Amino acid sequence: MGSTFNERDHLNQSSALGVATTNEAERILASKGILIYQEPVFKHHQSIENGGVLLAIPSLIAQGLLSYKEVYEPLPQGYYGIESIILTLAIMSLCRIKNPEQLKQHRAGELGALIGLDRVPEVKCLREKINLIVNQSKANDWNQNLLTQWLGSAENDFFFYVDGHVRIYYGSKARLPAKFISTIIMERKQQNSTVLFTLVFDR
User: Fold this and answer.
1) Helices 123-134 & 82-94, crossing angle to 10 degrees?
2) Is pTM, for the whole model, over 0.90?
3) Which are the contacts of 87, defined by CB distance < 8 A and separation ≥ 6?
4) C-alpha distances in angstroms, 153 versus 157, 193, 200, 201?
5) How confident is the model at residue 182 (pLDDT cuts 50, 70, 90)?
6) What mean pLDDT is reported for the chain?
7) pLDDT at res. 187
8) Quick check: is 164 in a domain?
9) For the chain, how many structural domains are there in total?
10) 184 and 100, same structural domain?
11) Are residues 55 and 119 in the same domain?
12) Residue 93 and residue 171 in one domain
């Protein structure tokens, strides 16, 4: 039936190599240079925190989440491969975790189950892996790859959908005009952000 939350929590807290490092053998092999990287393995769990975000993963994959393999080179040998890092960033986005430091506010083992590992990378490790990916300077290549995948042939009808959002600005450097926010019923300085969605329809 899968592990319960209490069972996972007890196991994660009693891990010999650190919090939620339950894949001890694999981690030791990776540290010795024997294991190139640990493949994600999704297991059956009960009451997993933020488990609902997994419903969005198939859609992300269908939109090209894993197409990075066609552009990026594998990361140097280590426990966390590039696939685990991409999945970690995707899960962070779905869970509204805005930066690596905010991972400290979540249970590493529960997030790890969402990426098919024992735990998510620590902040320092994740930043180092992100830097290795960024230093490849292939973001534009991946963007082009995704664009080609989304557009397909020229026979498709292509639309842009622009959605505007309003966020309250609490800073002091920018001088923004005061606007009325109905949900708060008071005037506050605001920041407008624009989200651009791409929609492709087959004729």
Assistant:
1) 110
2) no
3) 40, 114, 115, 116
4) 10, 31, 11, 11
5) low
6) 86
7) 47
8) yes
9) 2
10) no
11) yes
12) no
